[in-house]
Design brief:
The complex is a heterodimer of chains A (about 100) and B (about 700).
Chain A: E1 11-17, H1 22-38, E2 43-49, H2 56-59, E3 64-65, E4 67-72, E5 77-80, H3 86-94
Parallel strand pairs in A: 1-2
Antiparallel strand pairs in A: 1-4, 4-5
Chain B: H1 8-26, E1 32-35, E2 40-43, H2 55-64, E3 68-73, E4 78-81, H3 83-89, H4 93-96, H5 106-110, H6 116-121, E5 126-133, E6 139-150, E7 156-165, H7 167-189, E8 193-198, E9 203-206, H8 208-214, H9 218-221, H10 238-241, E10 250-258, E11 264-275, E12 281-290, H11 292-344, H12 346-352, H13 356-359, H14 361-385, E13 394-396, H15 398-413, E14 418-423, E15 429-431, H16 433-449, E16 460-468, E17 471-478, H17 485-488, H18 508-518, E18 522-528, E19 532-540, H19 553-556, E20 564-568, H20 572-583, E21 587-591, H21 594-602, E22 609-613, H22 621-631, H23 633-636, E23 639-643, H24 649-657, E24 662-664, H25 669-682
Parallel strand pairs in B: 14-16, 20-21, 20-22, 22-23, 23-24
Antiparallel strand pairs in B: 1-2, 3-4, 3-7, 5-6, 6-7, 8-9, 8-12, 10-11, 11-12, 13-15, 16-17, 17-19, 18-19
Classes of the chains: A alpha+beta (about 100), B alpha+beta (about 700).
Bound molecules: adenosine-5'-diphosphate and magnesium ion.
Chain lengths: ~100, ~700
């Protein structure tokens, strides 16, 4: 892996979904294509299916799916829903303190 | 946790998230709701995912949030409240549903200037902190957020509202304000200056005291760069020190600042670095203490300690001078008598079989030796009484200074102990002669005072000087009373003394310690009670190898040419002596006043050298020099000064700045002759100056 330049911190995302439920599928597709388009080499997208790993919901205090967590760079953020409003989602993911 | 006081930023974010969760629910974007107790996802059917059909689930979500939530229909009738909101307001949920919202929140929806319903109808979200009344009449500060709900066609169908108990935040804000006020008062009334600089060392905040310290108005000083106050006396790097912090690290250092009016203020600074969230230094905060008076006091103490030692020693020194002086006078009288009788009656001399040659050399030799001893003593005294301006260090000879100090203290030592000197050759050290002498004298005096009088043969004071690597160590050991363990940690404290009033001041070691550490050295002590004590001074060796070799070399290869010398001194005996000793090899003109000398040169007389006393009552050597520079510049260059060692500040500054040689009285004939030879060599060849 090429060392990431300091000016472009890596984006770390975690998406909580519920199996093949329609909004979950939409959210996965949206998240993937957003990342590909805008954060090509510099992102980690982790997908957590709560039907398979229900206990993981506790760690991040998830109350609904789909929920997308932006973990890094700070500030942390959570986006709720199927991520169809891509402009808004992109804006949220792009805010960073550094 | 709801009882946890969130920062307003975090609260803001949580409200936004709750808001987003509800918005997502309303627009059917949610697949599953997680039961927070079991962490099981409860899947919502497609039909359920719309608000109306999933009211149970929906309630489940909203009940888990910490915010009060309620909805209104288009006629501002309450259609839903969660348990949290009902609790906050002091009602049961059922008591609120179906009522007009104005019953509960008149302040928010209909107070003058309140956003009101029409605003929401136009699709704007609102947020405001207001005081609301609970059912029991008590007041509560609440933060209320509202957003319009629209149906799929975009038609306004009601309001979604959230409420958070803001009371604690208000209290916290209030407490914060009071706290700030308190801090502000502390900052403004403290006697220390407080200053905050940004990453480029520009001042962004100061209290009044800091501004006063530097002679500015608080407002004028903001924005100035810290280097604008730096003085030449400050140790290099002091401004930088203010910014070279690592997180969590404190710096403390001494420096001096130049005030608005140009005067200096000595300060002690304690600073911490300020860092942003990314860990980058964004400035520093410093507490600045004015230590000018403290410093002044300190140097006064140093002088008075020295004066005290000189005072103690004065009697001994007088004694030291009286011995050789008696020898000097006695021998000279004897020689004088011999000469008189010789001149009167040569026969008498022959008759007694004594010749002048046989009689005079020995007393003469003794007189010269006695005079040399007086010269040493006076040199020692001069060293210890030099004004504190002489603190500039130069490469000095530790052994010579120790010899001086021992001679000074000899009268104190000899009745108490035998003196053992163990000196190996050592490098020079960078120090001031006067101060180092003060250190040695103090250590020797302490050693002597630790030994009772009268048993000199049983006790000794051993002084060792040696070099190990790049350090010169001086050890002063005595076989005296020693220092009890409970006192050993305090001997360097100022005013700690175990001696009687009038003998001990308790300042000696404190000052020694300061002097030694100031020049990068260390002063340590070891002692065994009842056995004796050793004080050890360790100093860094100077990088200078040696001082210039004395000028006597030129004499041997002397030019043999006669030079013309003008001697100016108000002391007639010196004038006569110099004329006598130079006249055999050179042409000498001797004058006792600077004015006469000036007049002579103005008339066109020229000399190879003008040997002139620096301090004279009417016209000083310095005045003569500057006058000559006007009327005969070439002659001004040929001036050589003589001094007796008592300098005015002006004289010292003059000598420091000038290129003229200066010889200290008493001097040897050879020294003067060597300088004269150099001057003659500089003259155009031939018969010297016209
Ligand atoms: N060589 C020594 N032997 C025993 N005690 C000493 C010696 N040098 C210093 N001290 C102790 O340290 C104290 C402080 O010394 P100093 O600072 O020179 O002050 P002072 O000599 O005026 O008392 C002395 O009073 C004495 O108790
Ligand atoms: Mg002492």
């Amino acid at each position: 892996m090429v060392t990431a330049r300091r000016a472009e911190p890596r984006l770390h995302l975690r998406l909580y979904i519920a199996g093949n439920a329609p909004n979950s599928l939409l959210a996965v597709a949206n998240a993937k294509s957003l990342c590909e388009e805008h954060f090509a080499e510099r992102h980690v997208l982790e997908i957590v299916d709560l039907l398979e790993q229900p206990l993981r919901a506790l760690a991040d205090a998830i109350i609904v799916t789909p929920t997308l967590l932006k973990l890094a760079p700070l500030p942390a953020y959570r986006v709720i829903g199927n991520l169809n409003d891509r402009k808004q989602v992109l804006l949220t993911l792009s805010t960073n303190d550094e | 946790m709801s009882s946890e006081l969130l920062s307003s930023g975090a609260l803001e974010r949580r409200l936004a998230e709750a808001d987003a969760t509800i918005a997502a629910l309303l627009s059917g974007q949610i697949d599953a709701v997680i039961d927070p107790r079991t962490s099981t996802p409860l899947l919502l059917s497609a039909a359920q995912s719309a608000l109306r059909e999933s009211e149970e689930r929906y309630r489940h979500i909203v009940e888990t949030t910490h915010e009060g939530i309620w909805t209104l229909d288009a006629d501002t009738v309450v259609t839903f409240v969660n348990q949290r909101l009902a609790d906050l307001m002091g009602y049961a949920p059922d008591e609120m549903v179906g009522q007009s919202v104005f019953e509960f929140f008149p302040e928010f929806f209909s107070a003058p200037g309140a956003p009101g319903v029409p605003h929401l109808q136009r699709g704007h979200a609102e947020e405001e902190a207001v005081a609301v009344s609970r059912r029991d009449g008590s007041k509560m500060w609440a933060l209320i957020k509202t957003r319009p709900i629209c149906d799929t066609n975009g038609k306004y169908v009601g309001i979604l509202a959230m409420m958070t108990d803001w009371t604690r935040h208000r209290d916290a804000e209030e407490a914060l304000r009071r706290n700030e006020e308190q801090y502000r008062q502390i900052v403004e009334t403290t006697t220390d200056g407080i200053v905050k600089v940004d990453a480029s060392a520009c001042i962004v905040f100061t209290n009044r005291r800091f501004a006063e310290m530097l002679g500015y108005e608080p407002n004028d000083i903001i924005g100035m760069h810290i280097s604008e106050f730096s003085s030449e006396d400050a140790p290099p790097g002091a401004p930088a020190a203010l910014l070279s912090h690592r997180p969590g690290e404190k710096n403390a250092f001494d420096t001096s600042y130049r005030r608005c009016d140009g005067t200096l203020v000595s300060v002690n600074i304690a600073s911490v670095g300020l860092f942003d969230e990314g860990g980058l230094c964004c400035g520093s905060l410093a507490v600045v203490r004015d230590v000018t008076n403290q410093r002044r006091l300190q140097s006064q103490l140093m002088v008075s300690d020295r004066m005290a030692s000189v005072g103690t020693l004065a009697a001994g020194v007088a004694h030291e001078i009286n011995n050789p002086l008696t020898a000097l006078i006695g021998n000279l009288e004897y020689i004088n008598e011999c000469m008189a009788s010789t001149a009167g009656d040569l026969k008498d001399v022959y008759a007694t079989g004594r010749s002048m040659r046989a009689t005079i050399p020995e007393p003469l030799q003794d007189a010269i030796e006695a005079a040399q001893r007086i010269r040493f003593i006076v040199h020692d005294l001069k060293m210890f009484s030099r004004a504190p301006v002489d603190v500039k260090g130069s490469a000095v000879d530790v052994i010579a200074i120790m010899e001086s100090s021992l001679r000074m203290a000899w009268n104190e030592i000899r009745h108490r102990a035998q003196l053992v000197k163990e000196f190996s050759p050592v490098a020079f050290v960078d120090a001031s002669e006067a101060r180092l002498g003060q250190v040695f004298l103090n250590l020797i005096m302490n050693a002597a005072q630790a030994i009772p009088e009268g048993h000199a043969d049983e006790n000794h004071i051993r002084v060792g000087i040696e070099q190990t690597g790049a350090r010169v160590t001086i050890a002063v050991h005595d076989t005296g009373a020693g220092i009890p363990p409970e006192n050993i940690g305090r001997v360097f404290d100022a005013f700690f003394t175990t001696k009687a009033v009038g003998i001990g001041t308790g300042l000696g070691l404190a000052i020694c310690h300061r002097i030694v550490t100031d020049i990068g050295g260390e002063l340590t002590v070891e002692s065994l009670e009842g056995r004796g004590t050793t004080f050890c001074v360790s100093l860094p060796a100077s990088e200078c190898l040696a001082l210039d070799a004395p000028t006597g070399v030129a004499l041997r290869g002397g030019t043999g040419r006669r030079g013309r010398v003008l001697i100016v001194d108000d002391e007639e005996i010196l004038l006569r002596l110099l004329s006598r000793s130079l006249a055999s090899d050179h042409d000498v003109v001797a004058l006792s006043s600077g004015k006469d000398a000036l007049a002579l040169c103005a008339k066109g007389e020229r000399f190879d050298m003008i040997l002139c006393d620096l301090m004279m009552p009417e016209m000083t050597g310095m005045d003569l020099c500057s006058e000559l520079a006007r009327v005969a510049p070439e002659q001004a260059d040929r001036m050589v000064f003589m001094t007796g060692g008592a300098f005015t500040a002006r004289a010292r500054a003059f000598l420091d700045a000038s290129e003229h040689p200066c010889v200290e009285k008493p001097f040897e004939r050879a020294t003067v002759l060597a300088i004269l030879e150099r001057h003659i060599l500089r003259s155009p060849s031939g018969d010297g100056p016209a």
